[in-house]
Amino acid sequence: MSAIKIKPAKLNGKIYAPPSKSMSHRALICAGLSSGESIVENVILSEDIKATMDSMKQLGAEIEVSGDGPYSTLCINGSKGNVSEAFINCRESGSTLRFLIPVGLMLADRCTFTGSGNLSKRPLDVFFEIFKRDSIDYETNDGQLPLWAKGNLKGGTYEMTGGVSSQFISGLLFALPLLRKDSTIKIKDNLESRGYVDLTINMLEKFGISVENQDYRELKINKECKYKNANYKVEGDYSQAAFFIVAREIGNDVDCLGLNVDSLQGDKEIVDIVRKYDSGMEQVTIDASQIPDLVPILTVLASLKDGVTTYITNAERLRIKESDRLKAISTELGKLGAIIEERKDGLIIKGKDVLDGGAVVDSWNDHRIAMSLAVAATRCREDIILTDCMAVNKSYPNFWEDYKMLGGEINEFNDRQ
Ligand SMILES: O=C(O)C1=C[C@@H](OP(=O)(O)O)[C@@H](O)[C@H](O)C1
Ligand SMILES: C=C(OP(=O)(O)O)C(=O)O
């Protein structure tokens, strides 16, 4: 199934938020670095999580998968770190690549990192600077993957930017405790996506590592810290729940359950953003710097807020995700009749009561674009055809089953229809 026809139909019913992808990556890595056995429950084996799981096995962790429902339990015995050569296929997962580059260097003598889709083009320069600082040998294909690297992090103080991706900072945070030296990460400018650094610090804490956070300017790891095995059940994913929360807000009758109201996930902000719209303002400004993954579905929401103009700002980093998400979402929703102006670092959206539909749209091989278009389809006048719809496998392989379960009307499409 690569193209589907979606009929406009109202979604109805209750859905449990799928387990958090960000927390699953982190639990898998921390468990894979701890001595002894850890049990991680409630994991979706999406393409991204399979990438981290297979990579941790390459780096010496032993992982057994059990469970026959949509979610699995992982029994993980940590790596002993004596790997001579690791081949790490990150598939399309930026998190896997940026988290495991520093970790891989610590566990294996030599690592080769590969990936597919847009991953090769996503920036790595922040790590190349660290490689120079620590005299780590590396080779790339003109700055892109495959990356081959050999050498050890040296510890001490790392100065880095917080304005490209928080994933570089999370990656170092996972690796530095393995050095058993005092280390500090100094963040030179404003940290964007800081909620994800909170998730990393929180997961490290569960596995025995405490990080001293001085207002996201300095993150300190003490030489005494040591990973300790733990059991963890993955909580619901606000970034995925956002698709259903927005579906409800644009007129569907969907209840998304199973979310932790005390969660540290930055994308919990979806709840406040929806409330902001309900307060009757004619102009809404959304700063995307801390919540990049919400932007595609927020663009759907804004397109269907009749009489409201939405300004999405500080969103330039959206261009370096699985697709250029500013261009992808404005182009595809534009085909459905939405009124969106693309700016260098944001979008201006004039809301309407309903979209036209009646067009062929594409996911740009981006799961969040595919799921956003599926939600938009529920408020179109005419059917839409969505090509490359299986991009959802990156984070949410059951998305189309769940969409159908809620009453979504989809048919496999072939051009004879
Ligand atoms: O650490 C994480 O789990 C993530 C961090 C974010 O990336 P950036 O820090 O590059 O914004 C986010 O977009 C990504 O989907 C997941
Ligand atoms: C950007 C995303 O993930 P990653 O950076 O891990 O590829 C995402 O899930 O939207």
From TrEMBL:
GO biological process, one term: chorismate biosynthetic process
CDD domains attached to this UniProt entry: EPSP_synthase
Name of the molecule in the record: 3-phosphoshikimate 1-carboxyvinyltransferase
Subunit structure: Monomer.
Cross-referenced HAMAP family: EPSP_synth
Start and end residues of each Enolpyruvate transferase domain: 7-401
Residues that hold phosphoenolpyruvate according to the record: K21, G94, R122, Q167, R325, R368, K394
Active site: D293 (proton acceptor)
UniProt keyword Isomerase, yes or no: no
UniProt cross-references to Pfam families, sorted A to Z: EPSP_synthase
UniProt-recorded Gene Ontology molecular function terms: 3-phosphoshikimate 1-carboxyvinyltransferase activity
Record's keyword terms, sorted: Amino-acid biosynthesis, Aromatic amino acid biosynthesis, Cytoplasm, Transferase
Location of this chain's protein in the cell: Cytoplasm
Organism of origin: Sedimentibacter saalensis
GO cellular component, one term: cytoplasm
EC number of this enzyme: 2.5.1.19
Reaction(s) catalysed (UniProt annotation): 3-phosphoshikimate + phosphoenolpyruvate = 5-O-(1-carboxyvinyl)-3-phosphoshikimate + phosphate
Residues reported in the UniProt entry to bind 3-phosphoshikimate: K21, S22, R26, S165, S166, Q167, S193, D293, K321
Family that this chain belongs to: Belongs to the EPSP synthase family.
